[in-house]
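OP here, attaching both records as promised.
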Amino acid sequence: MNSLKRIFFTLKAQLDDVADDFENHEAIAGVAIKELEAYQGKTRIHQHRLQEMVEELELKLAELNNEAETWSARAVKFKDQDEPRALECVKRMRQVQQQIKALEPQLAKAQEQYGQLHNDLAAIQSQLHSLSTQKEVLSARQNRIQLQTTLQADNGNPTTGAQAIFKRWEQSVIGAELTGPIPPIKDSFADEFVQEESALELKMLLDELAAKQQAE
């Protein structure tokens, strides 16, 4: 856990040292989070290796315990029949028990370290969640301030720029309308005469066709 505290203090010190020298605080915070995520990954790898070690030691101890029980049962079995053989079984049993005695502290130590790493990972995950949330909140607040500052300024204001673009477009359209060809003026009174004359001409042509057909 001491190593975990050290990396937290190191990251905090780095942020404190450079925060005032850079404008992009979001990028700096992102780098700090990436470093913590990398440390989390290394811790998980170490924890996985410890887990494998614990499982191997547990399996080995289970095998040795079974072997010790086997030698014990053999010693009792041959006690009355063949004492030298029984004593050899006791000797083998004691050798196995010594191996068990040597492995048990190793297993206990590995289990303890595994538990510590488990707690470290929980603490790292909590810190990552807290830092990521804080980063998003501060980023949103900073973006809002920058937007308000930009909107209040005349230069570089995107809203003002957009309005100017549409205004220039409208003026261009109005100018094109004013300089374009003048449409002809409609005279409805004269149009009535033209329509009547066209209709009369068509009727006369129809009568002419009818008369020609009757003559044939």
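Record two, same layout:
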Amino acid sequence: MLAFILLVACNRNGNEGITFSIDIDAIGQQYSQELLQSASRMLRRRVIAIAAQQDIQMQETDVQVEEDGTNLTVQISDEDMRQQLATEMRDPFTMQFMEEVPLDMAEVIVAETQGFKSIPLTEEDIAWLHIAHQDENGAQVLITFTENGAAQKRELFAERIEQNIGIFVRGMPVYKMLVESDDAEEDTLTINIPHAELAEVFVDDVNVGLRTTFSVVE
């Protein structure tokens, strides 16, 4: 594991802060600089979201990356926000592929009309995500699987041609696709996201969730 120390400072003029260590796993080491940039963007979005939830007005959300690439600093002044950020950064990451099924067979029901059941393809089978193409119509995100994950994906998709597969991140539905024969033959999976900004958020959150682990340094 490759460990970086991220210093999250909560006051520009004081010493209050919260320090995280972030472990980047073996697969993620080759993408360490990309992961730091993704983590920086993700932290900024998390702080903005937490402030909105707590009805806190923020003039700025500044995330600084040190020159050696080992530290990230987020400026926050509110203790409740710091605690919530710490909790969220330590939450376990899950990504689940599920097949659409009749409601009476479903493990998860979305919008009261769509039922889904787990298939054995999860975050453990995914290696990396990146944006393969983007334009004014949105973005294509390429999901690369591990060697075992690719074999599993081909087999599971081949059994479900002309059926819908849903992708759930942290238990929330984020994408639904109709499996076609071409999808079953590929080692990778391309999904289309209608907005490039949403695609970047999705890629950042999944890659950071997959390849890093945050823990608070006391």
